[in-house]
Design goal:
Structural class: alpha+beta
Disulfide bonds: 88-137, 131-210, 170-196, 237-262, 248-271, 257-290, 284-295, 318-355, 322-360, 333-345
Binding site for Ca(2+) 2: 14, 213
CATH topology of the largest domain: Collagenase (Catalytic Domain)
Strand content: 25-35%
Largest sheet: 7 strands, antiparallel
GO molecular function, one term: metal ion binding
Strand order of the largest sheet: 27-28-29-24-31-22-32
CATH class of the largest domain: Alpha Beta
Domain Peptidase M12B: 11-215
Binding site for Zn(2+): 153, 157, 163
Number of domains: 6
Length: 677
């Protein structure tokens, strides 16, 4: 049997499906296989939903149906943990020892109609057990096609996902049908993976090596494209609620495709529902079938309907508690949905806004660095674990994908996930942030799309008038080995430049004053020229002819201590420093070291000419003025020139050529036909 090639970015969960005697007897030996294949197809579709953010194929490689004796020995009524342990051990015993065998499985799914737990318990699974020989398995209560969401939910646990709202900030998504809600409320017309599920999956998925191989082709019977074609509403009611249940006929005016209601002949007016619609393809009227919760014609030419947006949800929780996060609201194209070739809804299905924009109260923490650091314990690169540092990709289109750099080797690795919403796109831009993998421009006024920028000392939209340049030279002669402090640079400093005045055997070192963490040339580190990221900013460290230089645009979020590492006693070390800082933050030092930064000046300048008033035959056009910064001749917002008088527009003639085509010209108005009324 040959392997079926999946996409380069696909992960494939090769599944052993075990079903006990209670499932086989309920559905019947003749029909159970097709039922199970349909159920697993639905599970596969759930994992294909775009909201997951990772493409996972659920591939059935083997199906085992157990007899009565084995079934009752595995499931211990009222004891879910023991039942799961038995099922996992049984699945391990079924494993094919050869990993290249076509029936070798990565994960086992076990279905039963026996009550293995307290009332209402739908499934049981270990968290983060995927690819483990014994822990990669789930126990699921089968009661109809809605069980596909239970199977997807429990397998989600094995992949590393937690319940939404328990240990994460996605409780707001449970009512919208998130698959990992503590109580599964997802249904065929309304399901998605929460943003937390996507983030938790991406945290672990790269470590599941067993999901990287291509699955084998299997000769399962081909099923219709829409799963409900083979199953009537009466049959689906029997699957959901048991023998004797049929579609409820008490609600005759109710669209049967919106929600599947079922009742028993003994009490036909007592109707029950699992709050989900029938399967797509279920017949709902002569010549019609259900599709996405609507009863529509099977013949596409009979009905064409354009889509329209439903209402917006409320905004969800913020992705960060401080330091600028993002929160979303969504809407669905279901009011009505487009069918039979109708136009899709125009516009976007989600909106976002910035939230918790205030700075974090404690000492600064780099959000991208935190995400890289979280990979230290479980991300293996070239068969070993590393200490991961933040890395800014040179390709601007990839900066909202998480890349990290090994502290040990300097290698850069993709973490195969998007940077979390609210991560800064670039260390050169303190405000623009990543949102769903795309960089969103944010101005220093924290407005989306704004072009406002800080001046040289961090005043939003400023003209450098409050900026001061601090510079000086510091010389010391070490008398013993060990770090020797030279001077401090305060928080808020920008455009920091430090240079040795002369060649020396000593090395420069920098540490964070607040934490004591060494930013450059800590103990045991080799001094080598490099670019690196620390304290939330980019640093450039160079050594040429034994003269060291260090530069960062900043801003420094914490004060740093500048030191030297002596290599020879009695050899002088001399450092020159320079930085720009706001006048309110200038350190109390000799005023001779502080210079006022040159204030930007602006002028009105010719920007363009207006459009000609006529296309031919002689018209006029006028000058358009814009505001220009004198220092670099760059056009800026007109507000910078408001203090100076704008020149009067200059008029010139244009389009003097004769008109080849006659033009309509308006004459004077005639007298009105009436004097009033």
């Amino acid at each position: 049997r040959r392997r079926r090639h999946a996409g380069d970015d696909d992960y494939n969960i090769e599944v052993l499906l075990g079903v006990d005697d209670s499932v086989v007897r309920f559905h019947g030996k003749e029909h159970v296989q097709n039922y199970l294949l349909t159920l697993m197809n639905i599970v596969n579709e759930i994992y294909h939903d775009e909201s997951l953010g990772v493409h996972i194929n659920v591939v059935l490689v083997r199906m085992i149906m157990l007899g009565y004796a084995k079934s009752i020995s595995l499931i211990e009524r009222g004891n879910p943990s023991r039942s799961l342990e038995n099922v996992c051990r049984w699945a391990y015993q079924q494993q094919k020892s050869d990993p290249s065998h076509s029936e070798h499985h990565d994960h086992a799914i076990f279905l039963t109609r026996q009550d293995f737990g307290p009332a209402g318990m739908q499934g049981y699974a270990p968290v983060t057990g995927m690819c483990h020989p014994v822990r990669s398995c789930t126990l699921n209560h089968e009661d109809g096609f809605s069980s596909a969401f239970v199977v997807a939910h429990e397998t989600g646990h094995v992949l590393g996902m937690e319940h939404d709202g328990q240990g994460n900030r996605c409780g707001d998504e449970t009512a919208m049908g998130s698959v990992m809600a503590p109580l599964v409320q997802a249904a065929f017309h309304r399901y998605h993976w929460s943003r937390c599920s996507g983030q938790e999956l991406k945290r672990y998925i790269h470590s599941y090596d067993c999901l990287l191989d291509d699955p084998f082709e299997h000769d399962w019977p081909k099923l219709p494209e829409l799963p409900g074609i083979n199953y009537s509403m009466d049959e689906q009611c029997r699957f959901d609620f048991g023998v004797g249940y049929k579609m409820c006929t008490a609600f005759r005016t109710f669209d049967p495709c919106k929600q599947l209601w079922c009742s028993h002949p003994d009490n036909p007016y007592f109707c029950k529902t699992k709050k989900g619609p029938p399967l797509d393809g279920t017949e709902c009227a002569p010549g019609k079938w259900c599709y996405k919760g609507h009863c529509m014609w099977k013949n596409v030419n009979q009905l064409k309907q354009d889509g329209n947006w439903g209402p917006w949800t409320k905004f969800g929780s913020c992705s960060r508690t401080c330091g600028t996060g993002v929160r979303f609201r969504t809407r669905q194209c279901n009011n009505p949905m487009p069918i039979n070739g109708g136009e899709d809804c125009a516009g976007v299905n989600f909106e976002f806004q910035l939230c918790n924009t205030e700075e974090c109260p404690k000492h600064f923490e780099d959000f991208r660095a935190q995400q890289c650091q979280q990979r230290n314990s479980h991300f293996e690169y070239q068969h070993s674990k590393h200490h991961w540092l933040p890395y800014e990709h040179p390709d601007a289109n990839k900066r909202c994908h998480l890349y990290c750099q090994s502290k040990e080797t300097g290698d850069v690795a993709s973490m195969k996930q998007l940077a979390h919403d609210g991560t800064r796109c670039s260390y050169k831009d303190a405000y623009s942030i990543c949102v769903r993998g795309e960089c969103v421009k944010v101005g220093c006024d924290r407005e989306i799309g704004s072009n406002k920028v800080d001046d040289k000392c961090g005043v939003c939209g400023g003209d450098n008038s409050h900026c001061r340049t601090v510079k000086g030279t510091f010389t010391r002669t070490p008398k013993k080995l060990g770090y020797l402090k030279m001077f401090d640079i305060p928080p808020g400093a920008r455009h920091v430049f430090i240079q040795e005045d002369e060649a020396s055997p000593h090395f420069l070192a920098i540490k964070n004053q607040a934490t004591g963490h060494y930013i450059l040339n800590g103990k045991g580190e080799e001094a080598r020229p490099r670019s690196f990221i620390d304290l939330g900013v980019e640093w450039e460290y160079n050594i040429e002819d034994d003269i060291e230089t260090l530069h960062t645009d900043g801003p420094l979020h914490d004060a740093v201590v500048v030191l030297i590492i002596p290599r020879e006693n009695d050899t002088r070390a001399s450092l020159t420093y320079k930085y720009i800082i706001h006048e309110d933050s200038v350190p109390t030092i000799n005023s001779n070291n502080v210079l006022q930064e040159e204030v930007d000046t602006f002028e009105w300048a010719l920007k363009s000419w207006s459009q000609c008033s006529k296309p031919c035959g002689g018209g006029f056009q006028y000058t358009k003025y814009g505001c220009r910064r004198k220092s670099d001749n760059k056009m800026v917002h007109r507000s910078f020139c408001e203090g100076s008088k704008k020149p009067k527009p200059i008029r010139r003639m244009c389009n003097l050529h004769e008109c080849s085509q006659p033009l309509w010209a308006a004459e004077e108005w005639e007298h009105c036909t009436k004097t009033c009324g």
